[in-house]
Design a protein that fits this description.
single chain, about 325 residues, alpha+beta, three-stranded antiparallel beta sheet, 11 strands, globular, disordered N terminus, disordered C terminus
């Protein structure tokens, strides 16, 4: 019997002995129904899946302790059983929306049709924003700092961020590196004794998303599946008066070149820190148009206007030939 998990679900034609479809879970399917009633994009995408597969879209439980996925043959989003517990309702909702986006991606889109591509991408963007919504701006005299991390670092073993806050004694490393050192968006150094934070929520979310992708087994050479509720990425935040940061030698800009990024040696107490995003999900799952064919490539024409500089001028047409 195949095991469905956070890696892409195999289609029915690739599965010699597909598992029987699990029965819908009443509470989780009701969560999906609520999304459909309040968010037009969910209703549109769910309707597209139902038209394509000829079956109502529901949510069911896996018989495995870890994972989530989508079963196209039955048109069912599946989550591991732990997500049926009330304490994980928020994360379950995010996984339902994420799996809705992956299911929609499986339907595909004619990327050569600009209208179809725009509609598809707009829906994927909206689904992702529902899952990881942006944050409100802070007061004018306050810096709101964000920090992308994972559940292991947050929960810890009695000494995680939730209990101990951001402590300089646990910041960075003596080799000046970070796990996702090739993550170009957040390329700050992780110097020992300095915690890195940012004013840019999107950047912190992007860094946290890499932790979720790691937990989902998406990282190269690290296919082990982990529970995103225990090891996925999250974003925490805390506020500081600007007067307490500006001119303070325990705060500095990092060396990424992004002026939103700071490093600090200040100990930020746990009671000052709050979780603003419980699970950073991969996405948005947008598509791109194919490169133009030779018949669509703009033709560069020489300018017949004489010039006296000795440099040949070229005219770039605004329309395709």
């Amino acid at each position: 019997m195949p095991i469905y998990h956070d890696e892409p679900i195999r289609s029915a034609r690739d599965t010699a002995n597909p598992a029987p479809a699990p029965p819908p879970h009443q509470v989780l399917t009701a969560c999906l129904t609520q999304f459909r009633a309040t968010e037009q994009v969910v209703a549109d995408v769910a309707g597209a899946l139902e038209s394509a597969h000829g079956a109502p879209l529901t949510v069911a439980l896996l018989d495995t302790p870890v994972g989530s996925g989508y079963l196209p043959a039955a048109n069912i989003i599946v989550l591991s059983a732990k997500y049926a517990t009330p304490g994980l309702a928020s994360i379950a909702g995010k996984l339902i929306l994420y799996r809705l986006a992956t299911a929609f991606a499986q339907l595909g889109v004619d990327a050569r049709d600009p209208v179809a591509l725009q509609t598809y991408n707009a829906r994927q963007e909206r689904l992702w924003r529902l899952t990881n919504p942006p944050q409100d701006a802070p007061p004018a005299d306050v810096y709101r700092f964000y920090h992308g991390t994972n559940r292991c670092n947050y929960d810890g073993d009695g000494d995680g961020i939730q209990a101990a806050g951001l402590a300089p004694t646990k910041a960075g490393s003596d080799i000046g590196c970070k796990r996702w050192e090739k993550h170009d968006i957040a390329r700050e150094s992780k110097d020992q004794g300095w915690n890195t934070v940012t004013l840019d929520f999107a950047l912190a979310l992007s860094y946290a998303r890499h932790h979720t992708e790691w937990a989902m087994g998406m990282k190269r050479n690290e296919p082990t599946l982990r529970d995103v509720a225990d090891e996925g990425g999250l974003v925490v935040a805390f506020d500081m008066p600007k007067t307490a940061v500006d001119g303070n030698n325990r705060w500095r800009r990092d060396n990424s070149g992004d002026r939103n990024n700071f490093q600090t040696m200040e100990a930020i107490p746990a009671q000052q820190i709050r979780v603003v995003e419980e699970l950073a999900v991969p996405g948005p799952l947008t598509a791109v148009a194919p490169p133009p064919t030779s018949a669509q490539t703009p033709i560069i024409k020489a300018d017949s206007t004489p010039n006296t500089t000795g440099t040949r001028r070229r005219v770039y047409p605004t329309n395709y030939a």
